[in-house]
Amino acid sequence: MTHDTILPPQGLDALEARVRQDLAWLDLPAKDWVPETTLNGEPVLPVAIIGGGMSGMAACAALRFMGVQAEIFDQSPAGFEGPWAITARMETLRSPKQLTGPALGKPSLTFRAWFESQFGLEAWDALDKIPRLQWMDYLRWFRKVLALPVHNEHRVLAVRPRGDGVVQLDLHSPEGERTVFARHVVLATGRDGLGGAYVPAFAGDLPRERWAHSSDTMDYHQLAGKRVGVVGAGASAMDSAATALESGAASVELLIRRSDIPRVNKGKGAGSPGLTHGHLRLPDAWKWKIRHYINVQQVPPPRGSTLRVSRNAHAHFNLGTAIERMEWTGEEIRVHTSKGVFHLDFVIFSTGFRIDWTSRSEFAPFAAHVRNWSDRFEHPQGEDDQELADSPDLGSAFELQPKTPGACPGLERIHAFSYPAALTHGTVSGDIPAISVGAERLAQGIVSTLYAEDVEWHFEKLQAFSEPEVFGDEWTAALPPAQRTVEESAS
């Protein structure tokens, strides 16, 4: 296409009309087919989704396309779901711009369609990576154009499997505490949603106001003029270091245990439709082997994020620096390492997350019953991996499974649709590349369960169905052959 044939951007109104047309052509969403149910006079949702970020919205849209009413409950204010406008600090996303994300196979729902409708094809061709806040704007539009039902500022107090076909959610809302019943609950709670931020034990030797985890909500301008240490060398470490420097930190010491920063993103090299769709059916040993290898190799920080740090003269990359201990003198933090002592005012731990059901009070009603991989799988010698050992051992629809059958009735009605599902399902529930595959797999599994549970009701409805397509006036009954012969002879 030559320059003079490129059409000008048509605007979001035109794109939204196209979305409506696309869905009409596909006859989506399907009509509601799940019977309405109540409990003690209160309505029971077919599906409640905890978390209104990308994963939660993709799951909600997939379910609604299949004719299942699903509603989202998120603790954030409207438009600030997920990390993108709150705790994420990268300038751009790592994922290539052309990945379709939560679009569920609908071209008009992609980021590219949203971008080109406003800025045109030339701007798309010139775009390198998607700016972080622009991605958040796209997700806000995704929610709006699909009219997804999101209940904001709803904090989950407890998730209670009841054993009577219903899961109870105790919530704190702007109007006070409320209870919601649902036949299935989806935990679309992000990277830390099944546990929390991990920090080394020596963080406990420092005053809490002198350190933060990279996922904490924090005003980095409070670091102006301070000597800052960042523990780690991943993407969040680089983003935290750069943000601190740009906020006026006097210096940033990156404390990196490895002798070199990882160079190759092995997860990207493994990505293919084969792995996306085939991981779930691999033998357990192969699942562990692949995920463990990627974990050990580690994901490198993006090149742009690393350059964002290194172009600042006050950034110092300390490779091969193992931390031995930290101490607070009353005036400064002294970090004792294999390379000597660092004198700091503040430390940021970019040390990832830990899966730990017991650390989340809202999961207390069932946490002790969740079966993790370590409860049933003995990993090969030399392949120790705490993250994988703690990963929930999920069913084919991301459902939790009990350590002891029957010990927690209704546990299987809770579905873990977040990053820790990766060992069982592959990376289809937390990252942009295959989130649509995961959302549709989740939705198909829940849809199948809902139908099977109500099969008697559906059969009765089938039997009662009486809408005729043929009315009896479409033909004339033929006379018996002998009578026809007589009449034909008479005529």
Question: Can you walk through the features of this model?
Answer:
There is one protein chain. The protein is α/β, with parallel strands linked by helices and 491 residues long. Helices cover 30% and strands 18% of the residues. The chain contains 15 helices and 18 strands. The chain has helices spanning 12-25, 54-65, 111-119, 121-126, 132-145, 235-246, 266-270, 273-278, 284-297, 303-310, 386-390, 422-425, 435-453, 455-464, 481-490, and strands spanning 37-39, 42-50, 70-73, 150-151, 155-161, 167-173, 176-187, 195-197, 211-213, 227-231, 251-255, 315-318, 323-328, 333-337, 340-344, 346-349, 353-355, 414-416. The strands form four sheets. Strands 1, 2, 3, 4, 5, 6, 7 and 18 form an eight-stranded mixed β-sheet that branches. A five-stranded parallel β-sheet has the order 9-16-10-11-12, with helices on one face. The protein is elongated and about 120 Å long. The termini are far apart.
Number of helical regions? 15
- Overall mean pLDDT: 95
The class by helix and strand makeup works out as alpha/beta
Report strand %. 15-25%
Residue share in helix: 25-40%
3D shape: elongated
How many DSSP-defined strands? 18
Radius of gyration from the alpha-carbon trace, in angstroms: 28 Å
Biggest beta sheet summary = 8 strands, mixed
Low-confidence stretches: none
Kindly report how far apart the N and C termini lie: 74 Å
